[in-house]
Amino acid sequence: MDPFLRTRWLIGSDAVDHLQKSCVAVFGVGGVGGFCIEALARAGVGRLDIVDYDRVDVTNINRQIIATTETVGELKVDVMKARIASIVPETEVRTHPMMFNEATAGEIDFSDYDYVVDAVDQVTAKLLIIEKAKACGVPVLSAMGAGNKLHPEALELAMLSETKVCPLARVMRREVKKRGLGDIPVVYSTEEPKKVEGIEERSPASISFVPSAAGLIAASKVIRDLVQSEKEDSLVRKLQ
């Protein structure tokens, strides 16, 4: 039985076959990235590169798909790879247990990818991912802030230049423009971040349903773009 049968009914066999030949890289296997990766695999993407240096922590259990009492302490990329193997064994998953920065960027060949998803937190890493992807002509989508939010319905797909409200998007707009990187699609929230009084210098607050929704929205954009590119290529072949 074909695990992608119902997907074929929805988008067509040619599209599914194209997805199975595609390679997508996801940077960050956290609340957003983990759900994105799993959705990509369940949709039929045949090759996935996942990049994250971190290990599962007990505080990840409230929102990260890979975080359980049994996986605490394990490398996130290893847990994610094992999870995908239990869902779609045919999916090729390459793991990169590393912090992506200027020192390690040379270890990643962006030209190998059909799409790149940035789901990391650090602005410098996000900018570097965008820069490297664009230099190779690879489509890239970036996830903005999902912390301190309660309303998944406020999440949107937009171009970075069109974003509002989100503090991370504000910083990214400025830095992307400064570096001449052009515009990029993002998933972001129009919800004002919730302020927690009396708590300083901590990670953002979070809950189960906002980062997950952002990850699924990101995956939907990647899949639809890859399917559209297949249709356009097919049309060109027919016209030749």
UniProtKB/TrEMBL annotation:
SUPFAM superfamilies: Activating enzymes of the ubiquitin-like proteins. InterPro entries: ThiF/MoeB/HesA, ThiF_NAD_FAD-bd, Ubiquitin-activating_enz. Residues 10-229 form the THIF-type NAD/FAD binding fold domain. It holds the Pfam family ThiF. This is tRNA threonylcarbamoyladenosine dehydratase.
